[in-house]
Amino acid sequence: MVHRRCGCADAVTGKRLGNRCARLADPAHGSWYFAVQVTDVSGRRQRLRRGGFPTAEAAQQAARDLAQALEAAPVTGYCAVAQWLRYWLSVVEQRIRPTTYKAYRDRVRLFLIPHLGLIPFRQLSRRHVVRMFTAVARRHTRYGKPISAATLERIRATLRAALNETVREDLIRDNPARGLRLPSPRHVHPVVWTPRRVAAWRRTGERPAVAVWTVEQLAAFLAFVRDDRLFALWWLIALRGLRRAEVAGLRWIDLDTDRRELTIACQLVHTDHGLFPCPPKSASSQRGIALDLDTLRLLRRYERVQRGELGTDWSPSAPVSTRENGEAIDPDYLSYRFHKLVLASGLPPVRLHDLRHGAATLALAAGADLRVVQGLLGHAGIVLTADTYTSVLPQLYHDSARATAQMVLKAARKTARRVRKGHTVEA
Prior knowledge:
It is a single chain. By secondary structure, the chain is mainly alpha-helical. The chain has four domains: 1-72, no CATH class; 77-186, DNA polymerase, domain 1 (Orthogonal Bundle); 191-389, Orthogonal Bundle (hpI Integrase, Chain A), CATH 1.10.443; 393-427. Helix content is 48%, strand content 11%. The chain contains 15 helices and ten strands. A three-stranded antiparallel sheet has the order 1-2-3, covered by helices on one side. Helix 6 (195-204) links the parallel strand 4 (191-192) and strand 5 (211-212). Helix 8 packs across helix 12. The chain is globular. Mean pLDDT is 81; it is low at 72-77.
């Protein structure tokens, strides 16, 4: 069974309109979903739903593919870990974000099935899991670097989530991935491209894992890309700290020119079925971004250019970032394009996400409160903001040192004047 749905909501109640949306008469509005009845490995019947397909034919084909993939899964008796993992992925796909599902699927394919796939899951033990992580820790990435502790932790989290489902299904009593001790991930703090670091990079190629530009370096980059088609997006990420998926998902209806504010209500992610709009990363990521007058003028000019390009095809619900033909831009393309521009500029290298770190660092250097920076970035808690951005621009340290010294010297001069006038100094 296939049907078409959209994300439109009632303006009064806020509830999804579902198949009552009048815009569903437009074939380009919404996306296609399917629902099928399957038998899980415990013998129970379940109704699985999947969506985000561009056509009814694509949804029907996906339903047939899913039914065939699950048909071979045994109802009782022998079931290998690989079979369970594939079944678990098919069940959780609609419960989690598309990006999370893709990460789960990649870890299952690259690590879990190759090492644990042939083991009957009722026989899976802690020893098997420890052996897997020992083997994975010896591997290297395609860049020749060892698998990081953070990657090991993500693999463990995926396996633990999959096996927790077997515990809930009463198929096994205990989760062998629970309580496993792994190396603690090392938290990397952003560092600034100081003249010494730039000189070392030019001489040896050495670069920090996470680096941010100084104000002068950022200004040089923005001047270099002034005529780039995506200049407004680089500006927003660099000054307002948007994530690449958030800036790719921006629509003109998210811009309030009267209040000078951008509403982050959607992000664009890449799925197996193409680009898909979904809610931001977390509840705290749904936020309003205050805009200065220069940024507002830049966006208005960008809107006029896009209106001229698209003509009658332009609409307020159109994405802010588009290609020349009006299609939305893949967040991966933003990273690729930014990397090329940085190389061409000759500036020390930073990643696109490092512009977000730089925006937080610049805000702190400008005197913004930590709470303001937390809201700007959409962090869930202030601890994350404080822990990540302990490294700030050198100028902030100089200002702090200067203010401290001036305070002490002012007090010392006041005390000296009192002593010269014959007053005693209180302890």
